[in-house]
Design goal:
With about 1050 residues, the protein is mainly α. About 65% of the residues lie in helices and about 0% in strands. The protein has 47 helices and no strands.
Length: about 1050
């Protein structure tokens, strides 16, 4: 009520003053008549509030009170200012001409303030030395009106008006006085001007006033707490690097002042706390807490704005516990109010401060806490809620807290839910306002940035339904706009959020849908709809929408969007030319294509960008991202010579000081990777030369350093280079260099497990005779790095051990079997101790058994059988959960088949093979052998020197079961024909042999064996098998990890089956 009364008084005053100034000088008498009428209104005000003294609306006391209210309102605004974009427009900016202060019920000329000011400053109209006290009061009113314009021109106008009064004094006019309030208004004008040096100018005005006061002793210009607070507020808003230092200096001056009128008051402390909240000083929170506690010793009563300022200090501090600290301040206020301190009763501003702190913390917990607080604000106090109603900012901050949640699905769902609640609450308040015909603004009204915040969360979700959800919200916004709420009409930011939702949704024809929206925005703009004209972000989103579909047609459409943008700029229909970002996005889209035309097009784009930059078009110079896209495309196209030339060009630009085009880590790594994937003969060495240049570059530009990938790309190349004899040594050299750099303190070069296992694979692929020992040495190095140097990316696990075993398998080392057994025993022991990282898996046992299978020893069959039995035992004990299949059994049978030793060893190997087959062919067996294992068994029968009758007996039994199960394939047939005697063949394949004899007209068994095919056999014998070609190695069929070595394969070819041992070899 008081505030509205003051607004009415000032409004009447300015109406009268406007009319007075619009006429000639004698009409100043009407000002005095108006003043007497207003003084009568002030008497009525005194009658309504007995505890207040009567004051003139133009007296210093009245204006000072009004200034305090303005500062309190300003402090309220400052308490909100922690909220950054994109919700910077959630609350309105007060102080605009015609908004807030003047409700618009008084008609006046549009430029009344400018006209009145010029009339006042016109010395011909108002000669120097002729101002009266009434004139000074009117000038003061004009100065206050200019302050609310909040601009540089307004501040200059205020200074000109102040100078006009001072000039009158210097002209000898003793009837007037310049006072502290006029200086304070001038300082406030600069504080609100938005100028970077506004605070410095306000400080100069204050210092000159103090200096003049000390010189003249004029009490009218004595500094006061209000003047100090105004300057402090100016520094608070300035974002000047020395703002905190200057504010603290002002505070110290007030504390040291002997004048009681200059002592700090509650507004001083609130303003100083606001300075701390905006400061980047690491001790800002600590200092703010000390200042806050100091109020107790001075006996200054805190109010809600002081608490709000402290909350802002916590909210802006960036501390992890900022929301908890803000909440603690709020709980303190609630406790004090409950104990009778009415000044501590929190209002919506204090609750919003907590919500603002939650909105700054990107976590789901913060979002959930913000939603919970909003719900308690909505509930009445008797229902467990807070004794405060949420306002528009409360909903906006909660939406912002939800939209920033890392859990994108939660962010979308909750922010949209809060928005719907906000819409419902705003509709209810709007209905109530219509029913009671109230002129007061509603507490909750719809806000454009709240809608945009939800749309931003939807855009980040990358969900398939994000596009449809965004369009539904936009349709509601358009409906609000059609119903008269123009403030909610979708603007460019709204449409951009929808476009980014489309580009990230992954839907088909996203580009076409995005281009439709782009055309719709242009149509709205042509119809005169404000704030919907596409901007550079709009075109970026449309381009990204097309590029989300990685096809040549989509990239070409994106290219056409850039060309359209260029034409619009040339025709003057678009303010912004496509910039580096647009071209870089397009280049990246071309680079993703596996098309040789991509590199050609990117080179053309970069050439055009350079030409545009040369002729003066802004923001089109290629940067390192543009060049990186070109490098990527060239490497994919295999044009490594041009890629290397472009990298050299970037290095030259870097030496010339062009930081924007200087190569980064990706630039070097993509060229290294391109050479590593290349089939060029010297690709590895050229990749190493790029790495050397990388190190040289990092010495001059320490921010760009080689990483682990710079090494692993080349190491992987050498691992694949099977025709390069020294490839494993080159790979290990690079690995040792990487390890050495890491040990010497280059922590960013953290060796990875992949780097070590790749070198192990290099030795294995080259079948290095010492590959197993080298791999085991590398494994020990990994353990040392992990234990001694805390290498976080290195871990010796089952996969690493398997790589070591694979290196032993490929090495042909005579000690490979014993080393494999020792490694397996150690893995089992560590597993039994509870270390699960090195638990043997099926591949581990298969590798160890395959190593023994390839060994040149007489007991290989027994060794593999022991491991198989150990697996069975550990499975029975529950120590391992390996699946039950015939894979390990097949390796044992393979070892039996390739046992090349004395007759006793071969007999023992045959017994093992027969024993295993009996287990597998038993009706109660859980393991059903595949056709391959039958083939290995038949080969064992054919190669091993055993009794013919015993061999035929087992061959016949196994072959009949194989036929019954339909498992006969080329490999099974081939091995059976090589192992069976003529009599056995006649018994089991009589019909097939008869058919072959009739077809070929031969009786020679050797020829018959070569002519029998699967087609000659009954179809049910092969019903469970797909027809395939001959096995890759007739004597040593490669199955899984069981591979016969070269000597075994040769021996297989030399050694005939036992039934034709005395005949001519086939």
């Amino acid at each position: 009520v008081i505030l509205r009364f003051r607004l009415l008084v000032l409004a009447v005053h300015f109406v009268v003053s406007t009319r007075a100034f619009s006429s000639t000088r004698p009409q100043f008498k009407y000002m005095r008549i108006a003043e007497s009428s207003i003084r009568n209104l002030c008497i009525l005000r005194r009658m309504a509030f007995d505890d207040e003294e009567e004051t003139s609306p133009f007296s210093d006391d009245f204006i000072d009170d009004d200034e305090d209210d303005e500062d309190e309102d300003e402090d309220l605004e400052l308490s909100h200012s922690f909220l950054a974009s994109p919700l910077s427009q959630v609350w309105g900016q007060d102080g605009e001409e015609g908004d807030g202060w003047y409700p618009g019920s008084f008609s006046r000329k549009e430029n009344w303030l400018e006209d009145a000011t010029e009339e006042t400053l016109d010395v011909e109209n108002v000669p120097l030395g002729s101002l009266t006290e009434d004139d000074v009061e009117s000038i003061t009113g004009l100065m206050a009106a200019w302050v609310r314009r909040r601009s540089f021109d307004a501040a200059m106008a205020v200074e000109r008006l102040l100078k006009r009064v001072i000039d009158d004094l210097r002209a000898g006019n003793k009837a007037i006085k310049v006072n502290t309030r006029m200086y304070t208004i001038a300082m406030d004008a600069w504080a609100k001007s938005g100028e970077s040096e506004g605070a410095s100018r306000a400080q100069q005005i204050h210092d000159s006033m103090i200096e003049l006061y000390k010189l003249t002793g004029d009490s009218h210009i004595a500094p006061s707490a209000v003047s100090f607070n105004t300057v402090m507020n100016a520094w608070s808003k300035s974002q000047h690097p020395s703002a905190l230092e200057m504010a603290e200096d002002l505070f110290d001056q007030m504390m040291e002042s002997e004048d009681e009128g200059c002592k700090p008051d509650v507004l001083t402390f609130s303003t100083l706390l606001d300075v701390y909240s905006r400061s980047k000083d690491q001790r800002a929170v600590e200092k703010a807490e000390a200042v806050f506690k100091r109020m107790d010793s001075l006996g200054i009563q805190r109010n809600v704005y002081t608490y709000s300022a402290l909350q802002n200090v916590y909210a802006r501090s960036g501390r992890k516990d900022a929301p908890e600290q803000c909440m603690k301040v709020l709980e303190t206020m609630l406790r004090l109010y409950k104990n009778g301190n009415v000044f501590a009763k929190p209002n919506c501003v204090n609750y919003n401060a907590v919500l603002g702190a939650y909105s700054r913390k990107r976590s789901r917990n913060a979002a959930e806490q913000a939603c919970a607080m909003l719900e308690k604000m909505e509930r009445p106090d008797f229902d467990g809620g807070y004794d405060v109603q949420p306002d528009r900012l409360s909903y906006a901050l909660t939406i912002y807290a939800c939209s920033r949640c890392p859990d994108v699905q939660y962010a979308v769902d909750e922010s949209e839910r809060i928005l719907e609640k906000m819409e419902e609450r705003a509709a209810i308040e709007a209905q109530k306002k219509r029913e009671i015909s109230s002129a007061a603004p509603p507490t909750v009204s719809l806000d454009l940035e709240s809608f945009n915040g939800v749309l931003g969360a939807i855009a980040k979700s990358r969900k398939p339904d994000s596009m449809s959800r965004a369009i539904r919200i936009v349709k509601r916004m358009e409906e609000y706009a059609r119903n008269g709420n123009d403030d909610i009409s979708p603007n460019t930011r709204t449409w951009n959020a929808v476009l980014y939702s489309i580009s990230r949704s992954g839907v088909e024809n996203a580009g076409e849908k995005a281009e439709q929206i782009l055309n719709h925005m242009f149509e709205l703009h042509e119809k005169g709809v404000p704030n919907v004209k596409p901007d550079p972000f709009t075109f970026s989103a449309v381009i990204s929408s097309y590029l989300s579909n990685h096809t040549l047609e989509a990239v070409e459409r994106a290219d056409s969007i850039i060309q359209r943008m260029e034409k619009l700029y040339e025709n003057g229909e678009l303010e912004n030319h496509p910039d580096t970002v647009h071209y870089t996005i397009l280049c990246t889209g071309w680079a993703r294509l596996d098309d040789k035309r991509a590199s050609i097009r990117i080179v053309d784009i970069i050439s055009a960008m350079k030409e545009k930059h040369r002729v003066g078009i802004p923001n089109v110079k290629p940067n390192y991202r543009t060049y990186d896209a070109c490098l990527d495309a060239l490497c994919k196209a295999g044009d490594m010579d041009k890629a290397e030339q472009l990298l050299d060009h970037m290095l030259t630009l870097a030496k010339q000081g062009d930081k924007e085009s200087s190569p980064g880590c990706f630039s070097f790594n993509v060229v290294i990777s391109g050479f590593a994937r290349s089939n060029k003969r010297d690709a590895g060495l050229r990749a190493e030369s790029i790495l050397e240049r990388f190190f040289e570059y990092s010495e001059k530009f320490p921010d760009v350093k080689p990483d682990t990938r710079s090494f692993t790309h080349i190491i992987a190349h050498y691992a694949r280079a099977k025709t390069m004899p020294d490839a494993p040594y080159r790979a290990e050299y690079l690995l040792n260099r990487l390890v050495s750099l890491f040990r010497s303190g280059h922590r960013h070069l953290n060796p990875s497990t992949f780097a070590f296992t790749t070198v192990m694979d290099a030795y294995a692929s080259h079948k290095h005779p010492d590959g197993g020992e080298y791999a085991e040495r590398l494994m020990r190095t990994m353990l040392k790095l992990k234990r001694k140097y805390n290498a976080t990316d290195v871990e010796v696990n089952t996969g690493v051990v398997n790589n070591v075993l694979n290196a032993y398998l490929c090495s042909g080392n005579s000690n490979a079997g014993e080393r494999a057994n020792a490694i397996l025993r150690e893995m089992e022991a560590r597993m039994d101790e509870g270390e699960k990282s090195v638990m043997p898996n099926p591949r581990t046992y298969a590798l160890v058994m395959s190593i023994w299978s390839k060994m040149h020893c007489s007991d290989k069959a027994e060794q593999t059988l022991r491991i198989l039995n150990r697996v069975k035992k550990r499975r029975k004990e529950g120590k391992i959960g390996l699946p039950s299949n015939d894979f390990l059994h097949a390796i044992v049978v393979n070892a039996c088949a390739f046992t090349n030793a004395d007759e006793e060893s071969e007999r023992r190997a045959f017994e093992i093979a027969v024993q295993l087959m009996k287990e597998l062919l038993d009706e109660n067996s859980l393991i059903k052998p595949a056709g391959t294992i039958f083939g290995w068994f038949f080969q064992a029968c054919g190669r091993l020197r055993v009794n013919k009758v015993l061999k035929d007996e087992n061959l016949e039994r196994a072959f009949k079961i194989c036929c019954q199960r339909g498992l006969v394939n080329d490999f099974v047939l081939d091995t059976f024909l090589g192992a069976a005697s003529d009599d056995l063949l006649q018994r089991v394949m009589g019909d097939a042999i008869k058919e072959v004899r009739e077809e070929n007209g031969v009786d020679d068994w050797n020829i018959i064996r070569t002519k029998i095919r699967l087609d000659h056999l009954p179809p049910e014998w092969r019903k469970s098998m797909r027809k395939r070609n001959r096995p890759p190695n007739r004597g040593g069929h490669r199955m899984g990890y069981a591979r016969g070595n070269r000597s075994e394969r040769n021996e297989t070819k030399r050694k005939p089956a036992s039934n034709v041992r005395n005949q001519k070899a086939r």
